[in-house]
Structures are given as structure tokens and as C-alpha cells.
Amino acid sequence: MIHTLIFDAPAWNRREIKRYARIQGTEITYDTLIDDCIAEAGSALSYRVCYSILPVNTENNVLYLGNIPSPYQTIIKAIRDAQEVLLFAATVGAPFDRLIQRYSLLEPSKSLILQAIGAERAESLCDAFCERMNTELSAAEKCLTPRVSPGYGDIPLEMQKNIFSVLDCPRKIGLTLDSSLMMSPSKSVTAIAGIVDGCDKQLERCKDCEKIDCLFRK
Amino acid sequence: MDFREFLQHNIVILDGGMGTLLQERGLQPGELPERWNLTHPEDIIEIQRNYYDSGSNVVNTNTFGANLLHYEQEELEAVITAAVANAKKARESSTSTHQKYIALDIGPSGRLLKPLGDLDFEDAVAIFAETVRLGVRCGVDLIMIETMNDSYETKAALLAAKENSDLPVLVSDAYSDTGKLMTGASPAAMVAMLEAMGADAIGVNCSFGPDRLAPIVEQYLRYASVPIILKPNAGMPHSENGKTVYNILPDAFSRIVVELIQKGVRVVGGCCGTTPLYIEKLCRQIADKIPGFVPEIETKHNTVISSYSDAVFFGNDPVLIGERINPTGKKRLKEALRNNELNYILSEGLKQKEAGAQVLDVNVGLPEIDEPVMLTKAVYELQSIIDLPLQIDTSDPVAMEKALRIYNGKPMINSVNGKKESMEAIFPLMKKYGGTAVALTLDENGIPDTAEERVAIAKRIIDTAAGYGIDKKDLIFDTLAMAVSADNNAAKITLESLRVIRHELGAHTSLGVSNISFGLPQRDIVNAVFFALALENGLSAAIMNPFSAEMMKTFFAFRVLKGLDENCSDYIAFADMVQNNVTLGEKNAPSAVKDNLTLKSTIIKGLKEQAAKLCAELIQTSNPLDIVQEHIIPALDTVGKEYEQGRVYLPGLLMSAEAAKYAFEEIKSRMTDTGVKDKCSFVIATVKGDIHDIGKNIVKLLLENYGFDVSDLGKDVSPEAIIEETVRLHAPLVGLSALMTTTVPAMEETIKLLRVKAPWAKVAVGGAVLTEEYAKSIGADKYCKDAMDTVRYAEDINATIRCEQ
To answer: What are the start and end residues of each CATH 3.20.20.330 domain in chain B?
Structure first.
């Protein structure tokens, strides 16, 4: 079944906002600009997640997550040892896109910071959601593996179609997929994480990745 | 019995969930449920028969997602034909004897409409239209549009239903936890739009159980004059032993729904998680607790308009309609319209909103522009970013219809008048698209000299509108403020006719207030007093300049004195802001002199207001060309170099560019001839299929700063449109932007076409996915890694060809 959750605003992470805006570590802090944008973003943001827990099975040597064929190394690696996966979609909503659009034409500097805020909000929402799931899973001594998303590694964007049809995103959280496989509202994430036994080893999502020249590597 | 008649006199019982029942019968996650009409007809018929047997008057066909986005034409026809046939079989085989109808079920397309998504409004209408045509052909009794979570898409579906059938249409939206649709519309806004467009019943479904939908449905009851629908889920779902269980059981569900029927809800059923048992219990509880009870539908007389998110009501509290988007007497706006500078129009809109306007008048009529095209574009762009309702202002019926059609909400229409020709043109449009019209008290004989005659015209307009099924609540009378300098009694006549129409005819009123002082010095003084008099005589709305301090003083003072401003809080906030004899709306820039700033340093620091102020001061003593050459361009160069050296980052570069733009605006708005020779034309666009335009907008801003004559075609632009503009301007430079790998082929196609049709043009490309090699492989002349790079390239080309425009 598909569950829907609504979150309060996750804690703000200014460092991440600066990282997404590519102004981290500069002498000029742009703090006023960021403050203004955060203040304006607040009322335009909402935090919604829909998710489903699906069995992992292999048919004819192809990995399936529920009914989704998933023959991708990135997924296989990410969910190794998992019998179940968590499939989810998260969005900060359409009104925020209108805000970005408003400034895109009139004050691109704000639009740029708002883009970064949107990225940070969507990721922070995913973190808050995964933390909550981990808390629930820990009762059964299980935990989530690091999440991966379409467009990452060898997972093609085409996989979005399957994810959307399984999670019924338009109806559950107002998230749609356009003809170019991009999501609207734009500040949204879909992701997959394995559910594995034992929570002793902390998995580092960034460190596990092979793309060592990544701009966003932590 | 005809469904419309049945709906007028009965509580209508709808069906319950379909999707959840199909899942129980084996529908897999991700499988298209409508295919089951063909593959599992027995299951569908059985479920639908159970609903009829349980007491449903209306059962939906299993066609929620049956549209051309999910199916090819041929399969769509087969699916819908089978779906209607299944519903008919269910109805025939049902043994119960009550009234039974079949509704063509239409759910959302699953895509977001532009500008939020990439589905064009007219494409959405066409997609729904095909489903409607097929369903109607197969013989359904009514159409049920449901689970819509966006007002624009709801409008598209309702328009498609209305244009392709005469059947009754029920429209139900799915609200989010915020009490609004996912894209922001409030219940009041939805009621305003849907009722005005002629939906037979409206309401809410899905999302939550009846308990949590109650506050939303109560808002519908408060505002609507048509039957209200309630089709909730069986509460919230959770998992129990691998099965999905909903937390509101049939008894509790029925109890809450019956309570809401007692409050006035007329059309009831269930959505996700509900079953024939829920419908059976519901019918039983209705029969037991409220036998024979049919709630009255109270006709409301609200005069209301709406934007994509909010409704604005006309009543005792006056509504301010911003008049600034109208080229009459505005040189800068005329120039913006001729140059297709929509940004200027948008910023005028935003400034008026900040100054307190509650509605924006939009008039783009100029002899040399294509008004239908420009008006539609302006309305579309304004409603993309501003949540105020718009007043569409044109005398061209073609432009009016195009703008009404794409408007997201219930607009104000400016205007209709007592001439037969005007009423025959406007009333059918109002009936079809919805709207509240400003009605001018003039007719074929002109503007009468007496109040009696103006009132007589108003009466005639009301009577004629009634013949079209338009109530006087949707007419706002403008008794026409005429210059007192030409006729000393002009104000008296206007005010007397206003008073009679408002208080004796019971219709709302509006005035273009400032006409009264035409030809007089210090017009604001006269305007403000006339405004006060008009308000006292019953003025419901004023079309005015929200930057006029005198007018705003009158407005806030009047509201305080009339008890319309609780705790005087609006007045106090206004008083804080106001200074004597200053024009409002222009932010008071901090003193630049004190901080020893120069125009150059304000631009480098990105201080917009100060830059504008200093530039305005410089204009008094320097020639504009010198200001540009000696102050603005050197400042931009400094920042540009620092950016290229990595000492300033993109936000800093942009803030400087924005400050420079503010300075340029001062030059443009004050000088008849700027003396600034534009550099060559530069056509810029995000290519077809791509709706990402932040990068393109950044490039545009910088190019404009450097004096290029930029023609911005926007995003998702076809190769043909780019070629047409390049040829029209004989532009030596074209900039193409793409964010996604999937749209680079569109870029390549555009370049190929440019080489044939505009071989003189150099093509620069940029965007996230592009690289030097990639750009070369698709035939571009230049890959620009960022906005400054584009400026440098454009400067080079400009120097080479020394083009003079």
C-alpha cells in the first residue's frame, strides 16, 4: 500500500544552501540575501512524502522491486542483502516553484538562492523521512541502506515512470512527471533504499560513491 | 427522470471506491485499472452492480485515467466503450428499483499544466475533450470530473465537458492538508470559478475521511448556490498484516456524512477505501435518521472573482483595482509593449500588489501591436507569478475571449455597456468562461446627462444579462466619472446614479476615479475627495493608482471610519509607512550621500534602490550616454572581471546586474530619447521541450545591461518561432539554452534550421548538459560556459560586424 506523510519544516541547513548555490567558503557571505529568501520561502513550502515498502525478488536473473524491473548496478549495490526496499517520493510543493519563477524574471539573484533553498529543503525532507523510517525500523532491528535515485549512477530517468505508477504520486502528494521525465513541482526527490537487518554499521552515502570528482562530495 | 431534475429534488447517492476494490481482486501496483474493463469485465460489472444494489443513484464508469496521455487513440476508444457497456450491464442487472445513472468518470491527467509543469492548457482541454466525446457517444447520463488537485486543470476538464456535451457535469476537487488544492486554490476560489463556468454540482472527494473534509465542505456550503458533493475516503489507511485497512468504518462514516447532509450537502458517496457496504449503511442511515429530508439550496448573492489561489469578494469593504498596466499616457509601458518586455509588465504588477492593490487591471491595447496575442501573453505571465485576480481590459472581443479562456480563475471583465452590440459580444463569453463584468452606463446615444438615464441603462443591462442567465451580482456598474472641468455637475450626476444603483438596484459599483479631475491642476486633491464621496455613496471598487498617496490616505481613513478596519490595524500599518506628499510604492532608499556611495559603487555592491536614486540624481546634470559609459558599464566590467577571476560569485554578479537594471530604468523612464545606442539584436530562448529558464534569464539580464537589444522568446520555444524572430530582426546573434540531454536534439534541430533560413546568424549555446565538444557536435558557433562568457562573445561579434540598429 501507499502511505502519505506530512512533515513540519525540517531544520534549516545554511551550509547546504550555500553549497547548492556554489557560494560556500567565499569571503562574501550573501547572508542578507539568504535570510531574505528563507523568510519568503517559508510560507510557500510544504513537506509531503508518499512511500511504499516493496519486496525484492529476482525473476530470470532480473531484479524486481515489486513490479519494477531494476537491472541497475547502482541499485543492486545499494540494496545488497535487502529483502525489502523502501520506495518514496518527496516534494516541497508547487507554490514554491511559483516563487522561484517570480524572481527568475525580476531578481535572478534571489531566484538562484531560492533554487538552492529548494534543493536543500527537498534533501532535508528526505533526511527527516529516512530518519523517521529508521526509528520505526530499529524496533525490528532493521535499518535503511543509503538511498539512490533515478539519474544517479546507471539508474536511468526512465525508471521514474515505474516509480510514479507504483506510488501514484500525482494523487498522493501532487507530484507529476512531465514528458521529459522531469518532476513538477521541481523541488522533489524520488528514491530507493534497501531495508536490511542490523543497524550496527553506519553507511556513508557519499563515501560509497565512485564519483570522487563530484562537486557535492562531502 | 433527467439527472438535472433528479439533482434538484433529491439527495443523490454516488458510488464508493473502485481502485481499492480492484487491488483486492488482483490489480497490480502500476497496472492501468481501466484495462480491466476489457480484461476483467465481470469484476467491474459485479462491483458496479453491488453499488447500484446498495443504493447508489450514480455509478462512475471505470475510466478515471482513461485519456490520451495514458492510452493510444484506438485503445482509448476500446477502453471507454467497454467501460460504459460494463456500467450499463451493471445497471440492467441490478435488482433495486431506485433511479440509476451512469457517470463518465474523469480523473486528473497526471501532469501539471504550464507554467508549473509542461502540459499546455489547450492540450489539456483537447485530452479531456476526447474522453468526453467518446463517453458521450457511448451514452452516459452525466460527467463526473473528480480528484482534481489543480484549479487550472479543473478548468480545462470542465471546459472540455461543456464544449463537447450538454450533459450535467459534477466537479469535485481533492484538497490537501493545508485546506487548499496542491497548487494553492482555496475552496472559495474554486467555488467562484466552477459555479461561474456552469458546473451542475461541485464539491470535494478523496484525500481524507469525512471528518477532515468537513471544514472544507462547510466552506463550499457557505459560498455556493449549486448542490454540494462530498465523496470522502474511509479515513486514513494503514497496514494490518499486509492488508490495507482504513480507520473509519461504515457506521462512523455514515454518521458523519449524514450530519453534513443536515448542514446542506446534497450529493454523497465514498472514495478510496469505501465499499458497497459503506454505501448501503449510508443509505440506511439517511432513511432512518432523516427520512424524506432534502436540504434546501440557499442562493447566495456574492459578487466574487478569483485568482489561481484566492477569491476577492465585493461588499461594503471597497476593493482596490490597480490601473497601472494600461499604456494610455504611459510612455515607458508603451515602449515595453512594443519591445515585448513582459518583465516590465510583471514588475508593475508586483509593485501594485505591494502597494495594496487587490485586483490588477490589464490593458495592453496599442494600435501597432497584436492585442489578442499580447493580452493573452500578459495574462498568462501575470497569473504565473502574482496571486491577485485580474481585470481583463479590452474592447476587442477576440482578445477578450482568448484571455478569458486561458485565465486561471474567475476574472473581472472590463467592460460591457448598454449598447446592444457590446452586450451581445460580452454576455455569451461571461456565460461560457465565467466572470464578473464592469458595466458602463452608456449606450448607443452616448453617456446620458442625468442620473435617471444612467440608472435606466443599468436596469436595461441587468434585464438583458438575465436573459443570458447572468445574475446582477456579476455586474459591477461604473457610472462614469467625467471631468468636472468640462461640466460642473459631472460629479453630482455620477454620484447620484452610483447611489441609486448601489442602494436601490442592489448592484455593486466601480469607478475610474481619476477621470473626474481631468484638466485640473493638483489632480490628486480633487481625486481623493471625490473618492471619499463615492465611497460614501456606495462605491464597491475603485480602478485607481495605488501609488497615489492621497488616494490611499482616503482609502485607509474611510475604512477606519466605517468600522471596516478591525483595531484600526491596517490604518496604523499604512500610517507608519506614509509620509506627507510623497509618492507611495517607491521604497525610501537609504541615504546614499551619507554613506558616500557613487553610482558605480552601488552597482558593484548590488544596492538597487540606491543605484536608482543616484542615477536619477545624475540625470539632472549628465547626459544619459555618459552615465552609461562612465558609471554603469565600468561598474559591470569590474564585477564581471571579479566574477571571472572567482572573487565574486554568481549571486553577486546578478545583484550588480539587477542594480544596473534599476539605474537603466531611471534613464528609460525619464528621458524621451535615451541617446543610448543599442548594440546589435540578440535573440534568446530555451529550446523546445525544455521549461528551465533561470540560466537564460541570467544571460538576458547581463546582455541587456551591456546594451544589447535582447529579444527573449521565453522557454519551450519551437525552432520555427526562433527562426521567425531571427529573420524578422535580421539578428546577428542567437542564444540557445537547454538544461536536459533530452532537449539537446531540439537545439540541434534549431541550429540546422537557422543555417538554412538565417545563415548570417551566429549561434551561441549554453546550459547544464552542454560542453565545448557537445556544442561543436551539434553545429553551434560558440559554447558559452556562463553568462559573462556570453557577454564577451556578444561583444566580440558586435565589434566585428559593427552593426548599427
So the answer is: 3-289
Mind telling me how many Å the CA of A123 is from chain B's nearest CA? 20
> Out of B239, B650, B690, whose CB is closest to A1?
B239
- Name the closest residue on chain A to residue B177, using Cα atoms: A6
- Kindly identify which residue of chain A lies nearest to residue B382, measuring between CA atoms: A102
> Considering Cα of B668, then B673, then B679, then B685, what sign does the dihedral take?
positive
Q: Where are the domains of chain A?
A: 3-197
Q: What is the pLDDT of residues B752-773, one digit of tens each?
A: 999 999 999 999 999 888 899 9
Superfamily of domain B681-801: Cobalamin-binding domain (3.40.50.280)
Cross-chain CB nearest to B117 (options A54, A178, A181): A178
User: With an 8 Å Cβ cutoff, is B342 touching chain A?
Assistant: yes
d(CA B629, CA B615): 13
Identify which of B117, B606, B742 has the shortest CB distance to residue A184: B117
CA of A98: which chain B residue's CA is closest? B385
Q: What is the DSSP string of B334-363?
A: HHHHHTT-HHHHHHHHHHHHHHT-SEEEE-
Give the gap in angstroms from C-alpha B179 to the nearest C-alpha of chain A. Answer: 12
Contact: A180, B117; criterion CB under 8 Å: no
**B622 close to B666: Cβ distance less than 8 angstroms:** no
Band (B689; pLDDT cuts 50, 70, 90): confident
**DSSP 3-state assignment of A78?**
helix
Chain A residues touching B108 at Cβ < 8 A: 170-171
**Cβ <8 Å between A1 and B693:** no
Give this prediction's pTM.
Answer: 0.91
Contact B128, B156 (CB under 8 A): yes
- Residue B754 and residue B784 in contact, taking contact as beta carbons nearer than 8 Å: no
For domain A3-197, say whether CATH 3.40.109.40 is its number.
yes
Cα–Cα distance, B154 to B365 (Å, whole number): 30
- CB contacts < 8 A, A to B, total 148
> A184 near B112, Cβ under 8 Å?
yes
- pLDDT above 70 for B624: yes
Min Cα–Cα distance to chain B from A103, Å: 9
CB contact under 8 A, A98 and B385: yes
The answer to whether B148 and B109 are in contact (CB under 8 A) is: no
Q: DSSP label at B472? A: G
Q: Under CATH, to which class is B303-577 assigned? A: alpha beta
| Domain made up of B599-670: CATH architecture | Orthogonal Bundle (1.10)
A46 vs B237: CB contact, 8 Å cut-off? no
Chain B residues within 8 A of A108 when measuring between CB atoms: 654, 657-658, 694, 697-698, 701
- d(CA A149, CA A156) in angstroms, rounded, equals 9
Q: How far apart are CA B180 and CA B246, in angstroms?
A: 23
Name every residue whose Cβ is closer than 8 Å to that of residue B283 and which is 6 or more positions away in sequence. B13, B54, B55
**B303-306 and B311-314 strand pairing:** antiparallel
State the number of CA atoms in the 13 A half-sphere of A73 facing the CB.
4
Grid coordinates of A193: 533504499
pLDDT digits (tens, 9 = 90+) for B65-123: 999 999 999 999 999 999 999 999 999 999 999 999 999 999 999 999 998 998 999 99
Q: What is the spatial distance between Cα B783 and Cα B775, in angstroms, rounded to a whole number?
A: 6
CATH superfamily for domain B3-289:
Homocysteine-binding-like domain (3.20.20.330)
Judged on CB neighbours under 10 Å (0-12, 13-18, 19+), B567 is exposed
Q: Which residues are CB-contacts of A208 (< 8 A; sequence separation ≥ 6)?
A: A77, A146
Instruction: Output the nine-digit C-alpha cell for B1.
Output: 427522470
**pLDDT by residue (tens digit) across B205-228?**
999 999 999 999 999 999 999 999
